[in-house]
Amino acid sequence: MNQIPQNPFKINILVAADHGGYKGKLAGVGRYLSYTLPHIDQTRFNVILVILRDGGSVSGRLEGTGIKVFKLQRKKFDFFTLKDFLTIIKTENVHLLHLHQYACSNFGRIAGKLKNVPTIVHCHDLNYDYPWYQRLSDRILKNITQYAVAVSESVKASCVRTRAMDPEKIIVIPNGIPSESMKHLNREKCQAIKLRLGLKKDYKIVGTITRMHAVKGNDVLLKAAHIVLQTLPDTYFVFAGDGPLMENLKDLARNLGIWRNVFFIGFQKDVAGILSIFDIKVIASDSEGCSLALLEAMALGKALVATQMGGIKEIVSQGVSAELVSPQNPEAMADKIISLLQNKNIREKLGSNAYKEAGKYTLRSHIRMLEKFYEDAAGININ
What's the pLDDT tens digit per position in 57-67? Predict the structure, then answer.
């Protein structure tokens, strides 16, 4: 039998992001890229990644995947970025630009227009603390914004309202996670992690995996912790992650007199392992698009306390798969945490329901939607 020859043509996609994390540690968009890009179908798509700065956090995760990475070392207002984009589009014969974060979205849209290459702006958040210069840029570039991806309906609404984008050009594609790697560790391995971190094994653990940034509301969680510890002193609060407010948050823990029960453990590669030791996972953010940290905790069946912001309330339901509170409300957050710590049955029910809901947000389903959008946006169907 004669074999049908494979189509040698691939769609060349230039994926670009401003940065992959904080001080070389993977975070936010960097985590999204490290999850997603290696699983794009390489028989149909050729992915080229451009990172303006702090590219090591992502490139290290992509070694051996066949994805070419350009680390430009450009700042957000460096106009030589446009020249770099134009050069890479030409040398790599790029068919489509997939643009993340503000600077790449700005320079990428201009480069796409100049080279007649379609562009997709990927919107991850609710444009919290939206800067004036980006407001100006989005209005100038409005008519050449061809396509956009929003990670939730809330983010889409924000893009229309704040970034002057045409709603007809925006498709909603929720984030997805590699659920096969989100496996709960057994008791012995959990105890080993607790021992390594200096945690007493009989204490309950309330934790968060977060970025130490104002938008993440970690100060609110510390204030809630102060209230919880007055009722349940045998509780630890674990903060995994890094960011510019780390020292401020440590000072706050000391000022509140709770520093003995609060552990800042820094960036952790083993997300599933750290989540496994949590009795409750908290998201205290003032703004969330489609939180990977939320989806990861759900995939491990964790009881959740989260703010009812943005994409969070689109993914989980109050009292069914999570306990939701208003942002900047440490008293309400503390009440929910205390209630869950005192009732194992409710914790387990919430976690079980969250686990079932997580099945809707797999990496496989996300990539299938993304690949279809790539073909539509590039105007090329290679099936």
Answer: 777 778 778 89
